[in-house]
Amino acid sequence: MCTELKPKQPTISVIVPVYKVEQYLPACINSILAQTYTDFELILVDDGSPDNCGAICDSYAARDPRIRVIHQENMGLSGARNSGMDVAKGEYITFIDSDDLVVPQYLEYLLNAMDSQDVGISICKPIEFNNPEDNNISSSASSSGYSHLSGKDACIALYNGSAAVPINAWGKLFRKDLLESLHFPVGRIHEDQAMIPIACYRAKLVSVLGAKLYLYRYRDASITKEHFSLKRYDDIWAIDQCIAFFTEKNEHEIVEAAQNKRKRILAVYSIYARRDGVEVPAQYRVGLLSAILYLRKHVHPPKFEYYLAQVSPKLARLFQYELKLRRMLGR
Fold first, then answer.
1. What is the pLDDT of residues 113-124, one digit of tens each?
2. Taking the model in full, what pTM does it have?
């Protein structure tokens, strides 16, 4: 009797949501296919993209058996990532945005940092770029080792704004069972804020690499330049979901860190809302003076000066004069 051999399951599932990025998509896929670690599947999720992205995905899939393509109606970034997670076969999962790039050692180094069963997530550092000619910003990366944090400490670092544990889903390798029953919230922005803290908490250990392995394409459009939208308060909604989760777990230190981040974001958003004349719902409203005083105490002077300039250039100039006087007086 012949026994049919089952195909070997890949070690890593790479999930790439795809929407209106035909200009950047080939470079992204090429950087993944150039990995030094090759035991992976690449799941391209065409999220109803109206351009040629779907055809580009199919073209690559026809050339490399490691690539699978999902074509679906537009569900947004969260829905696309969720679809990829639902079909992922790997023991580990990583998310890469379709306008970004990864250096050849991205998978290799992240996987090496999974040095025990207790490590649930490994995290690398990003490199920001925005010039299309900078696609080869880094063709290789030297391993500078890694350190471990407990899952709880990783959560606290995340909420405290530590560069070592960023909130983004990209630039991380997750053990797949760690993400069981977790999904990104569909229909909301700041979707990472709702999921990544809980994923970190589930991990006994989180490995933090010193190597810069993920190339993040910085776009000029951002909250600092766009007209402020109430949709931004999805950020607060996500933090509130996590606060409820950690409160139930009696993790008071994490709750305190999350509440402090909530206060910082509400203060910043009150500045942008005032700048753009947006009426803020009562549950998110922070008085302008309260916001300024809070930010004065909790952010670095250059950033605080920037926020003052959003309210009034005169306030920013007064703050500059104050700093000069302090320097003159040696304070």
1. 998 889 999 999
2. 0.90
